Queue: 3 jobs
Job 1
Amino acid sequence: MHYNDPQLLEELGNGNEQAFRQLFVTYYSPLCEFASQYVSDGAAEEVVQELMMYLWERREFLAIVGSVKSYLFTAVRNRCLNAIHRNRYKEVTHSYIYEKLKDSFQNPDGYMLEELSRNIEKAIGELPETYREVFSMSRFGNCSNKEIADQLNVSVKTVEYRITQALKILRIKLKDYLYLLSAWL
């Protein structure tokens, strides 16, 4: 049976699958073609399928005034515009995130370096006081072993021993980062 618009809406509201089938067969292809003017073919089919699902699921509550055809084409256009808006929002968001994080993406060791920095500070802080003092003067104070020995009133051999011991302890504590530390230790 072929339904006119008012009958189609009434039968659809009553859950008549034949009325829905007529609506689907009559409008699916033209709506997909219309939607493809706004979005890609795959997205156009998805928009039309979602609209058809919406119509079936909400059939009891539909309040379409006027032409079913006008309603469907307007609904498809609006859904396509919404899809375009969502895609643009995603693109802008992805661009913003990329710009903020691109240095980290380009330097995958950036995350490791931050973690390494925290772990180095912690490991140095856990060194015995005498080792930490000599190590810090040597690596961060740019003092020679002789200058350190003179400042601390110890022998140069004691300074060398403390630096050696500090490095051994740090190598053990920072073994997971040795490839990054090879030049520093």
Job 2
Amino acid sequence: MPTISIDDKEYNTDDFSEEAMNQLGSLQAADAEIARLNVLLAIAQTARNAYARALTEELPEE
């Protein structure tokens, strides 16, 4: 009896319609994609910070 919590309420997924299961699968896929994109964003932000530091070191002194 798998359960899932939605809006602080527990639901038994065995009771879900096929369409509800499809929507749940889509929701889970979207959550996974958001997590993957957040990892990529963190990588890009880290790289940007490194490039900014490197640029600062290359700027002419006043």
Job 3
Amino acid sequence: MWKRKLASRKFWALLIALVTSVLTATGAGENEVLHITGIIGAVGSCVAYMLAEGLADGGGNKDE
């Protein structure tokens, strides 16, 4: 179940929204919020890609 969640774009969008809201509420500047949001988005994209490729590769081996 966790692999599915980590590969979900909706999960990463939720995480970015949550972190952005918390940073804004704690008084972080726009620059810090932008940098952290960019990092989370980049990491989320990489994780989703790796999990999707792993699932595709795993499913391909069963057919052979």
